[in-house]
Amino acid sequence: MSELPRHIEEQATRFLRAGDLSECDRIFCRALQELPESPYHCALRLKFTNPPILMANYFDVFITEVAPRFKIEAVYTEMNGFDINTDEWCCSLFAYRAYGGHADYDWLAHEDAAGTRDLALRDFVLKGMEPLQIAYGSKEGQRAEFTDAREIAGLLVVSRFQQLVSRAAALTQNLRFPLLSTAHEYDFIAEVQPKF
Q1: pLDDT tens for each residue of 139-161
Q2: DSSP E strand boundaries for the chain
């Protein structure tokens, strides 16, 4: 892999911190478009098709269940390792008694409540990116000449997940604290502030 994906991620990070997820998306799309055609270029025309209200309801159920246990200071949603779990893309929820900020993300590994573990809340299954799931699972997609496209498409997946989370967060009833989001193994972490 070249340094291109890392450089593109660094370029997008300042927009991520400013909450401009649309610009992050544009940066990743431009970078992917400039690469030779690959199985990952289908990402350019795909998005998650889950209705944001369903994700908002999922967040509200989690918050409602956790809130009586402790004062929530942050919630985090993480998409599964989508590049290796090509059969189903989904996300899980975690709650924290303390908000740790963006300087060091180690705090996200030490949740105080997890939806699947503590509440038996099923993961939220993500739909709409199935052609890209096929690309990640294919032998063709594993070819060395597609490595940069694979990595940049991954950043685009994360960005589109974060955009879905942002749209859903605007529809929640119970969000009173920061909501962070990314995918497993990514430090490209977005934050949505509560609407109240």
Answers
A1: 999 999 999 999 999 999 999 99
A2: 74-79, 89-96, 113-114, 124-126, 179-183, 190-192
List the domain boundaries for the chain. 4-192
The tens digit of pLDDT for each residue in 84-103 reads 989 999 999 999 999 999 99
CA 43 – CA 56 distance, rounded (Å)? 24
Query: Can you list the pairs that 162-166 forms with residues at least 24 positions away whose Cβ atoms lie under 8 Å?
Result: 162/21, 162/24, 162/190, 163/21, 163/22, 163/25, 163/47, 164/47, 164/48, 164/50, 164/52, 164/55, 164/126, 165/55, 165/77, 165/190, 165/192, 166/21, 166/190, 166/192
Print the SS3 string covering 120-136. Answer: CCCCEEECCCHHHHHHH
* Token pair recorded at residue 148: 């940069």
The amino acid sitting at 10 is: E
